[in-house]
Design brief:
Layout: H1 2-13, H2 17-20, E1 32-36, E2 50-54, H3 59-62, H4 73-84, E3 104-109, E4 115-119, E5 122-125, E6 134-137, H5 139-144, E7 154-156, E8 166-171, E9 178-179, E10 197-198, H6 199-209
């Protein structure tokens, strides 16, 4: 299944540009969209990447929006999205992560190195291990834990010899979910480090500020 998912992702990005552009949008509110860089509306320096973002839960609500080319795309990606939920990400809340705006990210990457995380002021390579996932904590976990767990900056370094495919599955709160420090983690000695806010409010600010910030 992992090999099939990596293969179908590579097939999609090798489709003719005219076919891929059928899915293009720079509107972050769209549930299915192809785009490039991060936020082309605001950024002055673009990131060297293209991405296809798919809303996948509940699967039956969104799968008809997905590309139907390659022909097996919906079937294979749907199987992957369903299976990856079986990893029980709630059991990995204690792992260190990087700055995604969501709660937890389950990342599948191919065998081409490129992912790095910032540790002790230095960029450290996260080299791929075949058939494994990387589970990262996002910004919402930092808020809920009242800074007990920190988001860690990450980046992807371009490989001059090979293209690189990565497939992240983002676990996000609902847009109207109110996010704030857990009450059990607030005390006289450890006051709340964040005010309460909705996930939609945070996502809008995250999107507008761009990855470079």
């Amino acid at each position: 299944m992992i090999k099939d998912m990596s293969s179908i992702a590579r097939e999609f990005f090798k489709l003719p540009e005219s076919e891929r552009l059928k899915m293009y949008s720079d509107d972050p509110s769209k549930t299915t969209r192809l785009s490039t860089s991060f936020n082309v509306r605001t950024e002055k320096l673009s990131n060297w990447r293209d991405f296809l973002r798919l809303r996948c839960y509940p699967l039956e609500d969104y799968v008809q929006e997905w590309p139907n080319n390659p022909p097996s795309f919906r079937e294979q990606v749907g199987e992957y999205c369903t299976s990856v939920r079986g990893l029980k990400p709630e059991l990995t809340y204690g792992l260190p992560g990087h700055t995604d705006c969501n709660l937890i990210t389950v990342l599948l990457q191919d065998d081409v190195p490129g992912l790095q995380v910032l540790r002790n002021g230095k960029w450290v390579a996260v080299n791929p291990i075949p058939n494994t996932f990387i589970v990262n904590i996002g910004d919402m976990m930092q808020v809920i834990s009242n800074d007990k767990y920190k988001s860690v900056l990450h980046r992807a370094v371009v490989n001059c010899n090979s293209e690189r495919i990565s497939i992240p599955t983002f676990y996000c709160p609902s847009p109207d979910a109110v996010i704030g420090p857990a009450k059990d983690l607030i005390s006289h000695d450890q006051p709340a480090m964040y005010r309460n806010f909705t996930y939609a409010e945070y996502f809008e600010k995250f999107w507008n500020r761009g990855l470079a910030n």
